[in-house]
Amino acid sequence: MQRESQATNAMLMARRQAAIPRGVGHSHQIFIERGENAEIWDVEGRRYIDFAGGIAVLNTGHRHPAIVEAVKAQLDKYTHTCFQVLAYEPYVELAERLNAKAPGNFPKKTLFLTTGAEAVENAIKIARAHTGRSGVIAFTGGYHGRTLLTLGMTGKVAPYKTGFGPFPGEIFHARFPSALHGVSVDDAMASVEQIFKNDIEASRVAAIIIEPVQGEGGFNVAPPELMQRLRALCDQHGILMICDEVQTGAGRTGTWFAVEQSGVAPDMITMAKSMAGGYPISAVVGRAEVMDAPAAGGLGGTYAGSPMACAAALAVLDVFEKENLLQRSRDVGQRITASLQAMAQKHNCIAEVRGMGAMVAMELCKNGDPHQPDADLTKALAAEATRRGLILLTCGTYGNVVRILVPLTASDALLDEGLAIIADSLDALKAA
Q: How far apart are CA 140 and CA 172, in angstroms?
């Protein structure tokens, strides 16, 4: 079929509905024509501010010039060999640079893959190979991917797990702390101990996996005390600690890895999303002796560590250094948090504003009661913001959290414009 010369969003969406399964959801009925930094224009020429960033993929914005240049330069050399067949230096250099950035005073090695789920799944494979154990403990509200193994670890049923079971065995879920909802660090740790008593002995657990800030779960931040106590528990029982930083990594939280802010060094870290500015690549970074556990040939993938994506990822690292984006992440986060907190002073439907660095969200409720999640208001707010020219995302176990993942390269003026749209949208909805 030839492309429509003057296609509208509605026309393209109709074609999409006819050609693509309904399981591929859409939060916005918009087709992009072009993007620039933190702005996009749709096929009808309308401009939007992008507070979604491709779900935390565009920390460096749409089409950052340095990343575009690096990819074009790589394109002129070679596009693919499969690293297991013919090696190439960008893969090695990127591994070296990530090894140096990861926390922990011990030798590290890095494996590259293609997607976040692939990274998480391989981290579990590596943990099982290293420990000779099979059990995995994850957390309620966590999100780890869409493969069957990673869905098993994901602590949210709808829409991710609905209709796809059964899932792999020996995966257990501990409680994730939330002061807002009355779950303490002590409660979380007690739930891990309960798993040891009721479900699987500690000596058969290969890994405990946790997001330092939950992504799909609603930007719930793991308190440093939790991370430190989990580290001690893992050390006590010979369990590997894995931090899933697919969404938090690549500088979103004000440090390259969010776990750095807890003072803990995990055994493995998974990352993907924004590490290559929009090009598909993921990574597992970990202790050298752990990473070396699988036999030769046990790890890899045809497209894993694509040369194009490696070139982009190296450029992202350079951009972070040259433009001081870690500090920018902290500054952006403070600006967003202050604005949302001002809204919370006006509207009791905002139960909490929370996050880390530029990974900020607000949870919405009914009647000022945080135990009455308001998913309808959350959905309406995102829709009203879109109508006014702002792309927003929602998340949370109950669908009542608005999350902001704006590119760190967005100007203060653009941030303020987008935040004003959120405020005006909320005012309009509450006045209706």
A: 9
180-209 per-position pLDDT tens digit: 999 999 999 999 999 999 999 999 999 999
DSSP 366-416: ETTEEEEE-HHHHHHHHHHHHHTTEE-EEESTTS-EEEE---TT--HHHHH
Nearest to 179 by CA among 349, 337, 351: 351
pTM of the model: 0.96
Tell me the C-alpha distance between 414 and 336, whole Å. Answer: 12
CA-nearest of 102, 150, 25 to 265 is 102
Contact criterion met (CB below 8 Å) for 273 and 250: yes
Q: CA-to-CA distance for 414 and 408, rounded, in angstroms? A: 11
Q: At which residue do the structure tokens 């930094």 appear?
A: 37
Residue 238 DSSP SS3: coil
For the segment 27-69, what is each residue's pLDDT rounded down to a tens digit? 999 999 999 999 999 999 999 999 999 999 999 999 999 999 9
Rounded CA-CA distance 5/288 in Å is 54
pLDDT at 314: 98
- Averaged over 138-166, what is the pLDDT? 95
Helix/strand/coil percentages in the chain, nearest 5: 40, 20, 40
User: Largest Cα–Cα distance in the chain?
Assistant: 64
User: How is 267-298 classified by DSSP, letter by letter?
Assistant: SEEEE-GGGGTTS--EEEEEEHHHHT-SPTTS
